[in-house]
Backbone:
């Protein structure tokens, strides 16, 4: 039985129907958290809820269906969550994917990896921020990746209209998770709010990740090397730690791996680039934030 009690915490998780998010939801529910699960597939979401309830019959779990790549759906789900809860203590932006070798766009016209992995979490965080402010000490946890090291920031080709490749799109989006986290923490600090934002790398984890990609390289890497990856249970530990541990109370603006603050490695990570992406993201999502 886990010793830490989260019975006074309301925790929202995106992408809880598989892999890291599913384990995080299960373990946070076992610690007593009231879960707000956001997923795009209603049947999988219901199964996730039932699976958690089988292990933790007392779990409080509310479910919301939304595809985070759709700004309309993110707005609808945020409105429903804002109407229902007195506050939000943790937002775990976990949903993410790598796509295939053919460039796709979201219903709003943005490259689909960028829309799913960056713009969706940006908009959701923006719309739930008022609810997070009502928590005595809220946490925003963004699941990034060591893949951020391979990313680049080129504002003129953010949508990869030229030179699309699924892994370039993925690494860029995970770099942008770090940009977002850093700029978010700077703005939170400037306002003196008791909210922290951190990013993390979960490890190379054997999950459903890569299954959305028809790309040969991706299937090869995840099919063969996946045998040597860590389990979803191991991969979820840094997300769970950042969402729940008293050790990181008040710690923000960091990038964690294996539950340790770790330096990021990418020359595009500058305050100026982070500010530019924030402004571009505000324009693309038609939201103003902090
Ligand atoms: N696995 C790794 O080695 C690894 C390494 C570094 C970082 N990460 C990051 O870890 C996070 C979790 O990935 P995972 O490994 O657990 O992969 P996963 O098993 O594929 O789980 C991804 C989750 O995100 C959801 N999702 C994807 N697109 C979505 C959308 N448009 N709207 C709503 N939900 C969506 C999926 O929903 P469906 O079930 O409906 O598809 C699923 O629940 C991702 O952000 C990923 O980038 C993973």
Residues:
């Amino acid at each position: 039985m886990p010793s830490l009690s989260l019975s006074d915490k309301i925790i929202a998780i995106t992408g809880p129907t598989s892999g890291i998010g599913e384990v995080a939801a299960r373990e946070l529910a076992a610690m007593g958290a009231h879960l707000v699960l956001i997923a795009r597939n209603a049947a999988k979401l219901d199964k996730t809820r039932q699976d958690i309830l089988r292990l933790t019959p007392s779990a409080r779990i509310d479910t919301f269906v939304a595809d985070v790549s759709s700004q309309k759906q993110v707005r609808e789900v945020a409105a429903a969550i804002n109407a229902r809860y007195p506050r939000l203590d943790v937002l775990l932006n976990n949903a993410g994917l790598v796509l295939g070798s053919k460039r796709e766009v979201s219903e709003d016209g943005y490259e689909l990896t960028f829309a799913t992995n960056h713009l969706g979490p940006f908009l959701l965080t923006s719309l739930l921020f008022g609810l997070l402010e009502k928590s005595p000490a809220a946490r925003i946890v963004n699941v990034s990746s060591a893949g951020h090291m391979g990313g680049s920031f080129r504002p003129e080709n953010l949508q990869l209209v030229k030179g699309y490749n699924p892994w370039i799109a993925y690494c860029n989006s995970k770099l942008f998770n770090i940009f977002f986290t850093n700029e978010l923490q700077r703005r939170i600090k400037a306002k003196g709010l008791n909210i922290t934002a951190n990013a993390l790398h979960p490890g190379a984890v054997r999950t459903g990740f890569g299954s959305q990609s028809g790309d040969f390289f991706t299937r090869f890497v995840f099919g063969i090397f996946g045998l040597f990856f860590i389990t979803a249970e191991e991969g979820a530990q840094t997300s769970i730690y950042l969402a729940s541990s008293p050790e990181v109370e008040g710690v923000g603006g960091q990038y964690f791996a294996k539950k340790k603050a770790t330096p990021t490695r990418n020359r595009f990570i500058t305050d100026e680039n982070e500010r530019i992406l924030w402004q571009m993201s505000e324009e693309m999502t038609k939201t103003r934030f902090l």
Remarks:
- The pocket of NAP is lined by residues 14-15, 17-21, 39-41, 44, 67-69, 94-97, 116, 143, 145, 201-202, 204-205, 207-209 (CB under 6 Å).
- The radius of gyration is 18 Å.
- Residues 166-191 form the longest helix (26 residues).
